[in-house]
Amino acid sequence: MDGTLHSRPSACPACSAAPSAEQLASAAVPKDARLFLSLPTIHCAACIAAVERALNATPGVHEARVNLTLKRVAVEGNPEVNAEDLIAVLASIGYEAHELDPGVIAATATDKAGRDILMRIAVSGFAMANVMILSVAVWSGASDATRDMFHWISAMIALPAIGFAAQPFFRSALSVLKHGRLNMDVPISLAILLAAGMSLYETAQSGRHAYFDAALSLTFFLLAGRYLDHRTRAIARSAAEELAALEVPRALRRRADGTEETVPIAGIAVGDTVLVKPGARVPVDGIVAEGQSEIDRSLLTGETLPAFAGPGMALSAGEVNLTGPLAVTVTAAGEDSSLHRMADLVAVAESARNRYTSLADRAARVYAPGVHLLALGAFVAWLWISGGDVRLALNIAVAVLIITCPCALGLAVPAVTTAASGRLFKRGMLIKDGTALERLAEVDTVVFDKTGTLTLGTPELTNLGEHPRRTLEIATALAGASAHPLARALAGATEAVGIRPATVSDLREVPGHGVEARLGGETVRFGRAAWVGAETGQDTAAWLRVGQALPVAFTFTDRLRPGAEAALAQLKAQGLAVRLISGDARGPVAELAARLGIEDWTAEALPEDKAAAVQALGEGGARVLMVGDGLNDTAALAAAHVSISPASALDAARVASDIVLLGSDIAPMGEVVDTARRATRRIRENFAISAGYNLVAVPIALVGLATPLAAALAMSASSITVSLNALRLR
């Protein structure tokens, strides 16, 4: 209905290019389908055999494998195999089945990882408590056979518990050692193994001291830090996968004889004609050959108002056909479509951002080799001083390793991140990525999208008082028959002031144009400027024409998101540069920029333009915070140093972002950078606490005044101190 929309350039210039003879002759190579079905009623081996036998006998199925624990079956087959047919096959043998979204499977894997860490924490904590109870008896004076018995019981509890609970550290350490590198898990693993090994040796030699409780304490506290870290990194899927999920797997193709067939997208070739029904997502890039409709182009432009689509108009994969059936001549499909290219763009941007190194990782590069050299030096020195007493030298080396074990360093970041995340969550900001706060503290430039971010993406009537009551009654009667956003906004505004619709007849909606009716022998129209005979302007508007009278305009503006002005004022007060980059037309963007005092703004930006602008700022030395909500913002969100999206954003935008704004009020954004900067200061303070603790404790261990058990207690004290310092953020 907006007169400015029908003349917008194609969202993807490549889509409007004429296909070459080579393209017309080429067709994509079909790929195998992989489907997952939930099987809630299976319960035994006989069920597994029956399900796999039935599915493997289905034409096109290559392999079906059932997982009884997850009550799920994975099916691989030809592209034409679909979930509906497989569900029908299973229903015929008496089993209920439902298709599983691959994203649910990925989210389940993430949840499983969290449960796995919690289980290891529980095992190590239970074992630690029991071994400490046994240690009390030893400390109380038990000796000889009684002491040895308690030590052996402790060994039988501790060694299996450590073997199970400490696996994450062992696997990580082995992985980096295979590649000739070091990380925090190497000294951690070494300290745990040496403490357990020395304790076992002391027990076998009927020694007075064993440190199984120290090894278990190390494992327990470090797993607690690992779980905190996991909680802050709970991202279910990548944005590239979300984009790929929007690709339509099948299309309705028109044969040469005029009949229709449903085929996989892999079987669509350039030059084919596909049919797109109202309400369906466009499966390919192409040119409209027949039909008229309105298209939701928010996928690529971010603009929420539907655009007119008629013969000769270019469409892109992923857009939604709203009102009328369309026949589309294919110019690109599958991996060549604009949607797939956007997914590739996002994947590249995500991989670039994931190269960010956290403060803890940077500290590990220096800390880990230093710890090993110090412990080795202590062992060699005491071996020489003691005249070859291996037991004494090894005890001191173990004490040094435990007392310098980076437990506090391991908790320094997760503890602060968890505290800061809790603080921001109370204010409506959900932190999704473990390094988001560190990156956010470095931000100096904020780039905003317009529609759905600074505004709510819902039109608001601006000139209600300029029209006579009779005009409003007629417009209300016609607007009530349309689901167009402008029509709904007008109907809502007139209803709020008590305007009742006029009585009209022959009311009908014309796809892509507007609504038409008869009023007292005259034709009345409400819709796009060109359709009612009005001149297109810069404003977002819908037009009403009664008979031969001059058309009248109803103008609209996008409703400002609550708190937008306050958030921008706070960000500017913190010295941050603010930019606006939008896919909307120049008029609305310029109006909003003036209203919010944003001097640097860009309109009519395509997805690749937004991503390129963010990348250019980054290459110029800026640390960019990108705030957006649309699929057209996804690549820019992934390319930014850190990103935020509202909870109302599309799934792909939310996944690509590091932080989600949970409410409709954007005011909390004003303090998110300040909170991040304070959180980073706390992290640095925790590093200082850890370093200070080592400066005091390490010399004590080096001169042989600290047993491995005392070292474990000191290490625990430093961890608690770090955690308490982190809680100051709350």
Automatic annotation (TrEMBL):
Domain HMA: 33-98
Molecular function via GO: ATP binding; ATP hydrolysis activity; copper ion binding; P-type divalent copper transporter activity
Keyword Magnesium included in the entry's annotation: yes
Keywords, sorted A to Z: ATP-binding, Cell membrane, Ion transport, Magnesium, Membrane, Metal-binding, Nucleotide-binding, Phosphoprotein, Translocase, Transmembrane, Transmembrane helix, Transport
Principal localisation: membrane
SUPFAM superfamilies according to UniProt: Calcium ATPase, transduction domain A (SSF81653), Calcium ATPase, transmembrane domain M (SSF81665), HAD-like (SSF56784), HMA, heavy metal-associated domain (SSF55008)
Matches recorded under Pfam families: E1-E2_ATPase, HMA, Hydrolase
GO biological process: copper ion homeostasis
InterPro entries: ATPase_P-typ_cyto_dom_N, ATPase_P-typ_P_site, ATPase_P-typ_TM_dom_sf, ATPase_P-typ_transduc_dom_A_sf, ATPase_P-type_domA, HAD-like_sf, HAD_sf, Heavy-metal-associated_CS
Record's GO cellular component terms: plasma membrane
Annotated compartments: Cell membrane
Membrane-topology annotation of the record: Multi-pass membrane protein
TM ranges: 117-138, 150-170, 182-204, 210-228, 366-385, 397-420, 687-703
Membership in a protein family: Belongs to the cation transport ATPase (P-type) (TC 3.A.3) family. Type IB subfamily.
Name under which the protein is recorded: Cu2+-exporting ATPase
Organism from which the protein derives: Rhodovulum bhavnagarense
